[in-house]
Amino acid sequence: MGSTSLTAQLFFLNSTMNIGNNMFSFYLENQLFSISTYNCLDPATFDLKLLKRYKTYYNPYTFSMYLTFTLEADPLMEPFPIVCTSLVYMCRVAQLKPINNQFTLTISKFPKTDYTSNPPISVDIQQTFNMSKSFTLEFDSLFPIEGQDNGTIISSLTHYPPENATIKMDQLYQNYQSLLFIETPRLSSVLAYVIGQNFIQQSWKLVKGNGTYSTYMASSTLAIDHTNFFSIYSVSKTTSTLSNPQNISIVSPSDIPGSLSTTRGVDSLGMLFSLQIHFGELNNGYLEENTFDLSYTFPYGWQLLYPDFSYSWSTSFYTSKFSQGPWISNYINNGIYDKSGVLTLDRNYNNSNVVVHMINYIPINSFTFILQVNITSYYKIIMMEYSGLVFKSYNLVSGSLYNGIFEIVVKSTFDKPFPLKAYLMVYDETSPSAVNAIYFSSTYLNSLLKTFPVLPSDIYPNIILDDFYSINFTHQNIDITGNFINVLNLQFTNILANFTPILVIGDSELIDRDYQNQFLTFQGIFNSETNMHEIPFGIPKQFNSGELPYTIVTPYASFNNTILATVVGRSSILTISKSKGDMLLPIVTSILAYPTTNVVLSGSGNMLIGWNITIEDFPNGFRDANISVVSSFDLEPRHFIIEKKNRISGDENLGVYQLSFEVKEICRTQKFFISNIELYDQGSVRLNQNIIWRLATIVGGKDDNQLTINLICPNQVFTSPPTLVYFSISPSVIDVGVRSRVVEINMTTKDGDGNLGLSDRHNPYVYLSSQPDTVRIATERKSYNTTFSNYTARFQMPYGIGIENFFISVYGILDNQLQINGYSPQDMMTNGSTFYIERTFTLNADPTLTSYTSFPVTGGSVFVSGNSLGTDETGEPIIGEIDYGQDLFQSININQRYGAGVLITLPTFIIGDTHIQSAKFRVRLFSDIYSNTIELVPMSNYGPLEPTTSPNPTSTPNPTSTPNPTATPNKDCNSRNCIHGNCVNSTCVCTSKDWVGPYCSSKVIPIVPPLPEPTPTTYIEIDDTHISISIVEINELSPIGVVLKSYNMTSANWKFENLSNDNGIAYHYSTELKIGSNSTVVNTTLLFIKDGTTIEFAGQNITLLPYSIKFTASLSAYPFSAMDNLMDIVFEASISTDSDSCSSRVSGHNNNGQWIKLNIDDHSLYGTFINTVLLDNRSTIVTLHDTDDASSDKQTYQYSSIHMAIRTPSFGESLQIDPDFSVLVDVDNDGTSKLCQPKKKLSNGAIAGIVVGAIVLLSLAIGGAIFIKRKQKSKKEMKRIQMKMKALNNN
């Protein structure tokens, strides 16, 4: 009941009705209320009438025909129950979205049936409830009819696992899979891969195809404890058997008997329940049968029970003291469904009284809106769910969890469109296992008769198949072996000028959509002259030849190319005539245990064990793999990355890679096996790792026995498990609404009574759990001896997490014998340790920005999402600030402000002939409280590319004691830090040539010219301070910044030539980058400039200070894999000392770009990187960014370093860099805070420092498909360098 008012009451009622007339009535306080009479219709009486039939289409890559049709059915059920039947063909029918009366019919050929001709196809469509209600679809066959002999040539057929294989499952309980690969240069018949005697046909995927040959893959999941039968056929006029039936048996491991027990404790904090499942031995499998009837999960862990050496799988969960039971835990014990762990609790608190006062949609664009919910409840709101999207306490923007407004950003995506019929489910603290209230769109919300609204159709059009009028491409047949840009032209039956659909290219199953493959997503413009939507797009070279798979995405539904072809015809088909053609993951072809499958470790010290893994990938080439190894007694996986450096033979197309790890002399007899493999090739598209099981090519085959390594430890000693003897956590009260939400943990564990020592590989995990969330915190071992180990952790809690208290669990305490222990919150309480900390939440304390919507280089409306931004009614005034990085720093008005984000209008990113690559944005409250800064990157020229966003507060990396570089904005210039200069446009401009540096606090001093090194690196030694500067990496990236190819320049084979003469000192280096069969020459030169001068570069005057060190660099042609890819040239600068010192690391902006300053005591390394380069002989602004991870350790008391990257677009002809480094002395302290060795004090005298200034300009020469020979290029480079040296000397 939604209201207790006697004058206005709203009831939510459910009723079961019978077919026919029903009187809908109910009793309230013994009084009968009759609502109305309703007629419940019998679905068996519904007639099937064909309203419309679309075109037929045959897809040669799925070996199926398709037909879309529309029914006239009244009333219409969802889903509508119909089936299809055909005498000589296999068929299936599927309902289309977004409406319920459109269906797609798929037709396949039936194996062992002769098709000597191509007669018309007849399919009956029948209603499930009444098979007499039907109609017949007849249409011409489009299947190929060539004979097997002259139609299809099978070059190879490979089946995994092999015939008659018997596979015994290991403890991981993985889903086993069969794989089939067929390679053919010509295919004109139909392939069929069927399961069992009922001919259940599996779908095929074209995984390789370059126009010359094609490889098809089919897969299926193998049934456990059954024999699986498979057959492969080629069906044309007649059926040809391509392989004998495969018989594969999967045998599950024996059940590990267990018993279930539960306990509960009640206190004023709420309810703590504990669950234990006891086993005779450790169970490494996932206990998926163990379920709680809860809408969230809690941590679990293992405990060794001493002295009987059995194991307990333990967990605890917390609920509010107002919660209503029951909670149920189920467990499968020896095949029997065990409910002995039923937990019930009867409470006498008031019932829930949830009232939703208002639901509001705030449009952002056609694929994004803000959902606002105004809600009150007698108890705290735990969470809400809007049509599958969950939002929690951190989405509160005003009020409280009892009476507040929640906001969440809702996006329509490729696989999760907006729902036509939305729902809202509400959970409060009385019911963690059931919904307290549920609402549906277009229904009443409350007694004031407020309704659940629907999205406005003018902004969010509900597009159906009939709305597509025409689709065509500027080029219908293309070769993508080179960079190629095409345009999709789309016209709807009605003009939709305010809406532009999204184009997503690629097979949705082969491509990893969870990964940031946004460069496969494109959105264009509406052309008012042609009334067509034009979407420019590019295609990665690794896409297969043949018909391009693509999808048109609209707010409520997505339409793939197959469905669209049945509506608008073959004009919607784009054919790739030639490509690189590799959409298949690398394949593991062999695994051999190293050194053997049985290893005895007895008194001979530690030993290396592992596997030699053979990996094949052609033509892309193998890049790297993530591999996890577990053991029968070790639940903490060993994670490995194998890449080129691990290759012991072969090449990137077929190579053997060694994975090895050390086992210690004090050990436990156990079995090691690989639990997971993720394989990646060098293609630009991230492929779906779940499309195939990576070990399917090994299990059941000749190397099956090599998958397990048995480690035998004869000298095992079993004792009591290790224990937790000390635990502390601070603060005792954590505010999860402020910017600093750090908890600090210190704990000590003690070895058991056998002096085995605590494992140095296993650091315990600390879990903080609050209904309905849990965070896991990894600890770090700081000190240890033979008996004790001390651990610490610092962790930034996610913004707004939890409801009330955080309960503490500690799991994963192990000794060297892998004896394990853990502590639930109840164990912690029994142990006398702190078992919870209190939670508070200060609303709108510190504004935080998290992500933004895509935008073009011309600027426009952008929504920046975040938290704690307040509202115009509840928050203080707010303004935006944007920094383009080239002395363009301006304020931006906030058009609309919401708790979930701000709507701004960005100006153009095109200034003159320069395209700005990115800009930094933040918001500022009038009380001078700043948000974090995020980088805004405009979409690609060929479509909107989702940028890499700032980390979400829910996944903030752990803070460390090492501070990150502090970005100093231009506006920080003031009289206190600009000591010998004036603040002009927020930049410190020196008033005398004697003063230099970012704060005009340094002076130039002479240095001795550095000696040449084997690589393009310069070293400077000042007393006991060491300074180095070098180019370390060149990376090719996708448009969103994902590294596609990386070249380590520090390990490159450099050729050195000393070009020093009377004009100056010059060291020249050259090397080659290998990119497949192509090579790119890299030339780098270091020049020492004794006298200062001014040069003109890229339209800017650059001042070179005396005693400067200049880098120059050039590259010959580099074959970018896509025109809109990027390149990073990464420099490393570092300063260090051997003595106890103070260090600092700070960066900021000046008129020309970005500067960095690294200090060790009174020495400093100073560098300026200009943001303008010559790109194809044009002045181009690029982005500069620090590539160091936020959690990386780049500063200690004795060391400070930074990696600075210059990010450029792809280029066609040339690009040149000329960095400059100068030695300065810091005379005045600029006030930068430093990280110091404890108790060490700085002198009060003047601070003298060496500062090296770097002005980084980048030049890479590209020759398209023509590659210049290195020798010729080197001669040209020598001449250019000598001319520059002479010119500098003359100046």
Radius of gyration (Å): 34 Å
Count, helices: 4
Low-confidence segments, given as residue ranges, are 1-5, 284-296, 332-337, 941-971, 1239-1276
Which overall shape is indicated by the principal axes computed on the Cα atoms? globular
Structural class: mainly beta
Strand content: over 45%
Question: Helical amount among residues, as a percent range?
Answer: under 10%
Largest sheet, described in full?
A: 7 strands, antiparallel
Number of strands: 97
Distance between the termini: 88 Å
Would you tell me the overall average pLDDT? 76
Region (Disordered): 941-969
Domain DUF7034: 722-842
Organism: Heterostelium pallidum (strain ATCC 26659 / Pp 5 / PN500)
Keywords: Membrane, Transmembrane, Transmembrane helix
What is this structure's SSE topology?
Elements: E1 20-28, E2 31-40, E3 49-59, E4 64-72, E5 82-85, E6 89-95, E7 102-109, E8 121-127, E9 134-139, H1 148-151, E10 156-160, E11 166-168, E12 177-184, E13 190-195, E14 200-201, E15 204-209, E16 214-221, E17 227-235, E18 239-251, E19 258-267, E20 270-279, E21 291-292, E22 300-305, E23 310-319, E24 329-333, E25 336-338, E26 355-365, E27 368-376, E28 381-386, E29 389-391, E30 396-399, E31 403-411, E32 423-428, E33 437-440, E34 468-473, E35 477-479, E36 485-492, E37 502-505, E38 521-523, E39 525-527, E40 532-538, E41 546-547, E42 550-553, E43 558-560, H2 561-568, E44 575-578, E45 587-594, E46 598-600, E47 607-616, E48 622-631, E49 634-642, E50 647-650, E51 654-663, E52 670-681, E53 708-712, E54 723-730, E55 733-735, E56 742-750, E57 765-770, E58 773-778, E59 780-784, E60 788-796, E61 806-814, E62 820-823, H3 825-830, E63 836-840, E64 848-852, E65 860-867, E66 878-883, E67 889-892, E68 894-898, E69 901-906, E70 910-911, E71 914-915, E72 919-925, E73 934-936, E74 966-968, E75 981-984, E76 987-990, E77 1002-1004, ...
